[in-house]
Amino acid sequence: MASFFIKTFGCQFNELYSAAVADALLRGGNQRSDDVEHASLVIVNTCAVRRKSEEKAFSFLGEAAKVIDAGHIVFMGCVASLDHERARRIAGHGLRIVEGTKSLDEVLAVIGTLAPIVLGDDPPRSLFPTADIEIIRGCESYCTYCIVPTSRGREVSIDAADVLSGATKAIDHGFSELLFLGQNINRYQSKVGGLVDLMTLVDGMKGSFWFWFLSPHPANFRPDEVRRLMELQHIEHRLHLPLQSGSNRLLERMNRRYTVSQYEQLAEPVRTADGWALTTDIIVGFPGETDDDFARTVEAVRQFRFDAVFLAKYSDRPGTPASRMQDKVPAGVIDQRHALLLGVVQELSEESNQRMAGRTVEVLVLSWREPDRGFGRSIDGKNVWFASPGRQPSAGEFVHVVVDHGSREGVYGTAVW
Ligand code: 5AD
Ligand code: SF4
User: Fold this and answer.
1) What's the CA gap between 213 and 227, in Å, rounded?
2) Cα(388)–Cα(404) distance, rounded to whole angstroms?
3) For the CA of 309, the nearest ligand
């Protein structure tokens, strides 16, 4: 029996793999440790999308290696597949490295040599009430700033029968939300067709559940597909559609393969539907970004009235085409632009949340935080804090909440029964 500690950096894929590893270890009779010092097995699940996350992974590894033998540290995720050498220099040659592109089975095989594990094919319990389900691994889009095609490799779609049986199992086990994952999810292809065909089959499943997916690429999406998805019964009322920049010139340099007006055609059905949210990713300070390019991004963010924006400062990733571009934007300019756009983004989120006042929204309960206050997420993806006089709903239940007011962080209201 081992006591284990898992540190996770980065995306939803890493969250899923870490949760699955934790579940297998717990089923095997191991215990979770609250800190590295008291753990006999440490797992570091890493992210290489930005330099900062990579540095954090190495620094965590260095600290862990001071208190635990490298042979009991598992280093996995994107950094593990990109820079074995540095990891071994930091922790020692005994370090157990599992490359980031490997499937979960292979990760578990390595961990199984260090501690007892018991495999299960249910969705990880620690993510309850959400079941994360990977439907396509890897990415071949080669956006010029991005390390993912190198770290995660070629695209592999998961067989539709496996996806659907995973989804059925999740619902049978009482999960309320299915989150389908793929780095470039609308490149999904299987015997049943593409993403929309698969989601339509999911929608036909029996039970009370919501689902949504991350992340589609605008170049691989058509407006009629967006419309078909929006007609489904169980789909959440939100679309996350990464824009990255509001300048066509930069979109081309990023190799994104769409223009702002093509993006607009995809966003239009969502923007004109009542109660639907549109969210995005934006990179500030991509090489060659001029004041004019940046102004176009600010304008686009305002034009699309994004309900939430994940804003990143451009981070140079060695080996990517963008890292070889000569006209890098100085860090000070990136900081200034980031601060300015963050102000706009926060203003839009606040407005979006304030517009909810007076409405009744469907909410998935995630936890019960205070004696008389629940926390959940609305069907359009907003954080919801709610009072529930006389009844305390459990995580995984769906409730209706009358919204009283909104803030930058979310909305506040009262559950009605
Ligand atoms: N620098 C900054 N942000 C990046 N992203 C991906 N690569 C980089 C990079 N080199 C962002 C993109 C993507 C999100 C997952 O991370 O916005 O959509
Ligand atoms: Fe990276 Fe682009 Fe692939 Fe997304 S679509 S993972 S940003 S290369």
Assistant:
1) 15
2) 13
3) 1
Distance 149 CA to ligand 1 centre (A): 12
Residue 46, beta-bridge partner list: 77
Q: Could you tell me where in the chain the CATH 3.40.50.12160 domains are found?
A: 3-112
Domain at 360-416, CATH from 3.40.470.10, 3.40.50.450, 2.40.50.140, 2.60.120.10: 2.40.50.140
- What b/e sequence results for 83-96 when a residue is b if at least 16 CB atoms lie within 10 Å of its CB, and e otherwise? beeebeebbeeebb
Coil vs helix vs strand at 254? coil
pLDDT tens profile 235-254: 999 999 999 999 999 999 99
DSSP letter for 401, please: E
Q: List where CATH 3.30.750.210 sits in the chain.
A: 123-236
- pLDDT-above-70 percentage for the chain: 99
Q: Write the pLDDT tens digit of every residue in 312-352.
A: 999 999 999 999 999 999 999 999 999 999 999 999 999 99
Class of domain 3-112: alpha beta
On the question of pLDDT at 44 being above 70, the answer is yes
- How is residue 228 written in tokens? 């078909």
Which of 289-296's residues contact partners 24+ apart within 8 Å by CB, and which partners? 289/245, 289/247, 289/250, 289/314, 289/329, 289/337, 292/247, 293/245, 293/246, 293/247, 293/249, 293/250, 294/247, 294/337, 294/341, 296/245, 296/246, 296/247, 296/260
Look up tokens 């950096």; give the residue: 9
By CB atoms closer than 10 A (0-12, 13-18, 19+), residue 18 is: buried
Please name which ligand lies nearest the alpha carbon of 217: 2
0.85 cut: is pTM over it?
A: yes
Domain 123-236, second-level architecture: 2-Layer Sandwich (3.30)
State the DSSP code for 414: E
Cβ of residue 283 lying under 6 Å from some atom of ligand 1: yes
Answer yes or no: is the C-beta of 146 below 6 A from any ligand 1 atom. Answer: yes
Confidence check: pLDDT of 210 > 80: yes
Which has the closest alpha carbon to 399: 414, 382, 411, 409?
414
Q: What is the Å distance from ligand 1's center to 281 Cα?
A: 8
146 lines ligand 2 (CB under 6 A): yes
The predicted structure's pLDDT at residue 101: 58
| Residue ranges of the chain that CATH labels 2.40.50.140 | 360-416
Ligand in closest contact with the CA of 143: 2
Specify the ligand 2 atom closest to the Cα of 215: 4
